[in-house]
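Supplementary Methods, section 5.1.

A reviewer requested that the exact input to the structure prediction be made available. We therefore reproduce it here, unchanged from the version used in the analyses.
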Amino acid sequence: MTLTKAAGGFIGALLFLMLANWGASELYRVGHDHHGDEEIAQAYTIPVPESDGAAEAEVVEVDFEALMASADLAQGEREWAKCRSCHQLNGTDGVGPHLNGVVGRDKASVPGFNYSAAAQAMPGVWEPENLFEFIANPRGYMPGTTMSFAGIRDDQARASLIAFLASNP
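The structure derived from this sequence is encoded token-by-token as follows.
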């Protein structure tokens, strides 16, 4: 008899929850699919002044020479901490190629390292200017790279990192 009462209580509670869920879903509908074909009026609008194009986001020109002149090797070494999980400065390759002498080195030129097709297809030398752009957004600079690093947004931090790398031939 006790088992029957427990089962009845459980089934009754389950039935109550199912009916409550059905009732709530009928009362509170979310979305456009339950309102028919009429247009839904927007509750409020925020007026935005028209733009004539002159107020567009201005491209800020970075004075690269001034950044490099004010580069701080200690800050560059701190920024290097973000890189050392994949790169080495002791001449051995890790997940990424070693970065000894990367400034002035041909791109994708470390012997024995398996570079991505995007890196192999990019000609040129790693000069401070293009390293500056690459470190800001690796996937934007080299689409298709296997480097998963998001980049360093701070201009001064990138310049300090490049100065630190240049000091490690």
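The longest helix spans residues 2-27. These observations are discussed further in the main text.
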